[in-house]
């Protein structure tokens, strides 16, 4: 077991990549606190070994701080929560930009601020932030607000990596291509022609298919584990070739 004896906090673990990653971390022996704002989704963790499910809204700073105080010192933080807004620059509203920065960026900083003191006291920790290839790595159509905030995630990741590299803390980002998750299905179904929309998402993936969440989780396990102990400040893509 690659994560035996380690403790992990995962945000947005109710579905999609967060869910698959929480299961993968637990399967490797980590004690996982799987959190989400949606308590109904968390029922899926009932009976899963090594997983404690708990409601946590990462837009609520006080809730994050209070929750972190109930946890033992963490070895792993996977910041997975995020939102995707549709539209180019001319469609980007102030409200969307504000909300996306709050959920995609500020919430990650808040969870980091809540768990970092414990990691520093222990002299070790791996922080993994969910970014995307749609960020400073690549521009994608109709993802202005999203790509802007995910680029900021890479900035946050490198900042944390740089500041704490001498104190046993590593911080890396995961950058998926298009992953077949419930929210992607919603984005597809919001189109006038969902079948065509799905085809278009698939067409932009050189491998000719979408990823499954279980294909992103191994990257999270790697970055969480000591196998990546020389790795920090990096943006790891698992993208089906979209950035070739
Ligand atoms: P998803 O979008 O289907 O599910 C998101 C989860 O986040 C839900 O369980 C939801 O309840 C939870 N959530 C929403 N607001 C929250 C809050 N305030 N506090 C706590 N939890 C909250 O899952 P997904 O598509 O796997 O996306 C997860 C992350 O991966 C996001 O950051 C997303 O930007 C990123 N990502 C997704 C893709 C993709 O194609 N699906 C690609 C690259 C990056």
Automatic annotation (TrEMBL):
Keywords noted in UniProt: NAD, Oxidoreductase
Enzyme class: oxidoreductase
EC number: 1.1.1.-
Coiled coil: none
GO molecular function annotation: oxidoreductase activity
InterPro entries the record matches: NAD(P)-bd_dom_sf (IPR036291), Sc_DH/Rdtase_CS (IPR020904), SDR_DHRS6-like (IPR051122), SDR_fam (IPR002347)
Pfam families: adh_short_C2 (PF13561)
Gene3D superfamilies with a match to the protein in the record: NAD(P)-binding Rossmann-like Domain
Source domain of life: Bacteria
Family: Belongs to the short-chain dehydrogenases/reductases (SDR) family.
PANTHER family from the UniProt entry: DEHYDROGENASE_REDUCTASE SDR FAMILY MEMBER 6, DIHYDROANTICAPSIN 7-DEHYDROGENASE
Identification of the protein by name: 2-keto-3-deoxy-L-fuconate dehydrogenase
